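Bug #77: duplicate submission created two jobs. Keeping one. Sequence:
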Amino acid sequence: MSQTASVRAAAGAWKRTIEWPTLGVAVAIYGAFGLLTWYHALLPWWLLLPLGAYVVAWHGSLQHEASHGHPTPWAWVNEALVLPSLWLWLPFRRYRDCHLTHHLDENLTDPLDDPESWYVTTEAWARMGHPHRALRLALNTLAGRLLLGPAYCVWRLACSELRLLASGAPGQARAWLPHLCGCLLVGGWAVGVCGLSPVTYLLAFAYPGVSLTLLRSFLEHRAVQPVAGRSVVVESGPVMALLFLNNNLHALHHAEPGTPWYRLPARYRARRAALLSENGGYLYRGYGEIAARYLLRPKEPTVDPLARAAHLVVVMGPASIKA
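Kept job's structure:
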């Protein structure tokens, strides 16, 4: 069994029943999306944008649950549940495979082996021009990650997919055809039925929705030894915890990747002292604290502090995008 297959099996091993709370979240997400798009003309932009961003990022959190084998025992049902791509940019199958590879914790943050790492190798940094270096430094601030991060993720995805296409790598059609169908569903409803302009959808829903997802992943991991110290805990309030489906308790998620989102708070209360001991106290008391510290200040070096000799770099981070 491959490493990714092993992680996928472990991720779905919590139980093999239908998880109704997660299905309830799916109903709430699509219901809210339908209402926001249908009544968009009645809402001022300053209300439509945060609500649209919240719903799209919430759907991204649902995709994260589906990538771990929730909420049903059937992978095709879970994939169908998140088929409508509210944020448009990333095929679910690409996200799922990258995210499960990311869960090989011994490789966490390694820019060569962790597809969700935002670090770069020393060799890659040396090859970068000054504009690209400036961009990477900006992306290490929260403001830069939120404002520029979605566009950067799309650019990196395009570069990656073009390289795969040029190399003749298999599987691209299997990943992109369902995604394109999901984009057509969303566009057909939002633009064709509800009358939203494509520009309004991108600016009020898709782009800020990816930004909110990048808020969650901004400092989910740090490059330190030991490996147990690399995953954060953000003790967030109920609004943000629901948005991220408790993935803000990220150290616990990596310790128990198969546990469904609605059981994480109780598990965290039971394991809090041990988790914070294992991760070296890597803890924040909410996203407001993170913004206060890192809105305009880089959170850490861009070059991997645990850098090893290399000739290749992977710098796309969905979700970190992710996912």
